[in-house]
Amino acid sequence: xxxxxxxxxxxxxxxxxxxxxxxxxxxxxxxxxxxxxxxxxxxxxxxxxxxxxxxxxxxxxxxxxxxxxxxxxxxxxxxxxxxxxxxxxxxxxxxxxxxxxxxxxxxxxxxxxxxxxxxxxxxxxxxxxxxxxxxxxxxxxxxxxxxxxx
Length: 150
Hints:
150 residues
């Protein structure tokens, strides 16, 4: 017999395990990031800056799939901690430039333990992790392409 409500069962939803795992991962990051005095979103901002050193706000929003109104308070807190400096782009006053400070750069060494600790938390084979990574980025890339009208 066909159950017309089968699609509404929680166990049949892709969104639920993604949501639950995302929450679980963020909870596992918390004690590690507390030692660095960072929230998870501040941490991902710092990861972009450790790689790029200086970015504009638009680049940061796109890289992290976040909106400006979400990024703004994060940047304010990171600036108050001395990890970043904000300035206006001299060629475009509307563009906010975020620069990693020496203190922010030094925190990078302290953060090295975070990915190592997190990788031990999840018992995935290299192949499983690779498949999951590729699948999630495929979903993100398709959404970005859709938003950009590609």
